[in-house]
């Protein structure tokens, strides 16, 4: 495949979701990038909550049927929910695009074995992580300390680039954008744009054309 699969990971409080949202908005008009829309066995109304992910909802039965039919490039279960990345991302990568997907660390080794995977690791000092988690007001100080003590490791052999998010959200977003654009550098926007019929937009993975 000519394109790449990029996933952004980070510890709780690293600000991954904030930076991803900023990157999605900044790159909306850049044809080199596609942000995969996850399928989740979570009700559609959950998308209306502040900060909720805009996902494609399915029931567990629908998800299992889709999985059995080969609809997902990658899928996993976490926190009692099923998550899937639509197989449409493979078409985008064949055509040279950079697909940005929110993946579980549990499927990174599988993704690296099948695709040209790049991992962007959002980092921040422990004190910054603790302050951000405390600002959410969801956990006690003891719970925050326990969470920070559970450092998740990445599988060996991955192509990883660190993105420091220890300043303002704008600074962190600028660093993430620079890292994403570095991945896409071999694919000039004009080369991809020439592949589209006039007036057509790139479809989002999991959504039909037209």
TrEMBL record:
Please report which protein family the annotation says this sequence is part of: Belongs to the ribose 1,5-bisphosphokinase family.
Q: Does the keyword Kinase apply?
A: yes
Name of this chain's protein: Ribose 1,5-bisphosphate phosphokinase PhnN
Task of the protein: Catalyzes the phosphorylation of ribose 1,5-bisphosphate to 5-phospho-D-ribosyl alpha-1-diphosphate (PRPP).
Q: What class of enzyme is it?
A: transferase
Q: Which domain of life is it from?
A: Bacteria
One GO BP on record is: 5-phosphoribose 1-diphosphate biosynthetic process
Q: Where is this region: Disordered?
A: 190-210
The UniProt record lists the Guanylate kinase/L-type calcium channel beta subunit domain at 2-184
**What keywords are assigned to this protein?**
ATP-binding, Kinase, Nucleotide-binding, Transferase
Q: Which organism is it from?
A: Teichococcus rhizosphaerae
Q: Name one GO molecular function term.
A: ribose 1,5-bisphosphate phosphokinase activity
Catalysed reactions, as listed in the record: alpha-D-ribose 1,5-bisphosphate + ATP = 5-phospho-alpha-D-ribose 1-diphosphate + ADP
EC code? 2.7.4.23
| InterPro entries according to UniProt | GK/Ca_channel_bsu, P-loop_NTPase, PhnN
